[in-house]
Design brief:
The chain is α/β, with parallel strands linked by helices and about 240 residues long. Helices cover about 35% and strands about 15% of the residues. The protein is built from 8 helices and 9 strands. The longest helix is centred in the C-terminal third of the chain and has 23 residues, at about 200-220. It is globular and about 50 Å long. The N and C termini lie far apart (about 35 Å).
């Protein structure tokens, strides 16, 4: 990116975060060429840890883009913190309210301005016991259909060593190995111009999530399992459902 385009608070975030991540992680970055330097792009990472937004931000910044993450709108209303988030060009999102349409408008505007919008399609850290991707929510697909922006998959493995969500354990030691790989944009052309029905959005989302699953399988090795589904099940039961697609 052209560094002079960054404002004071964006530089402040870089100075605060990047040195910490440089010491904390031993990085393997691949596929940065798929994050084009100009124009709007939707970046869809897998989500394995509370630490992976920092790893993703580091990777995207090193690739020459400024990452614009989605955050709960309530956080943006917190004094000082919300002001800084706005200055760092992060994006407020209303969830499960009548204002959700306004959130989509914020995202469309960010892409129209050439932003690199980061959406976790799973919506939360995966519930899969082995941290494989689970079935996603349809927000990224809806945004792609509305804008035509490319959807670039980014997979990572290693942030769960920084903070393991299964044990709620933080690892402070330096040079923890992390691998991040970006792939070519997901081919969603068959749905171009389609009406955003539930079936269309779910098909697009499954296509995105299966790409993430297969890319992660290349990093981790072995055969990836079916996408983990959010299904009601008896307390204590942790079985894996059937394949999503």
């Amino acid at each position: 990116m052209t560094r002079r385009r960054l404002g004071f608070w964006q530089w402040f975030a870089v100075v605060l975060v990047k040195p910490v991540m440089t010491v904390w992680t031993r990085r393997t970055w691949r596929g940065m060429e798929h994050l084009r330097r100009d124009g709007g792009v939707i970046i869809v990472p897998n989500h394995v840890s509370h630490a992976d937004p920092l790893v993703a931000a580091h990777f995207i910044y090193d690739a020459g883009r400024w990452p614009q993450f989605l955050g709960k709108a309530s956080v943006f209303r917190v004094p000082v913190i919300g002001w800084i988030l706005h200055r760092c060009r992060q994006i407020p999102v209303e969830r499960n309210t009548v204002d959700a349409v306004r959130s989509l408008e914020h995202l469309v505007a960010a892409l129209d301005q050439g932003g690199a919008v980061v959406i976790y399609p799973e919506g939360t850290i995966t519930r899969d016991p082995d941290l494989w991707p689970m079935k996603g929510k349809t927000g990224a697909a809806r945004l792609a259909l509305a804008t035509g922006a490319p959807v670039v998959p980014v997979v990572m493995w290693g942030p769960e060593r920084i903070f393991d969500p299964r044990r709620a354990r933080l690892n402070p030691r330096p040079r923890i190995p992390v691998t991040v790989v970006a792939g070519p944009p997901v081919d969603l052309s068959r749905w171009a111009g389609s009406t955003p029905t539930k079936a269309v959005l779910e098909e697009m989302t499954d296509t995105i999530m299966l790409r993430l699953r297969d890319m992660l399988g290349e990093i981790r090795g072995g055969t990836p399992p079916p996408l983990w589904e959010r299904t009601a099940r008896p307390a204590g039961e942790r079985r894996r459902p059937e394949a999503a697609a």
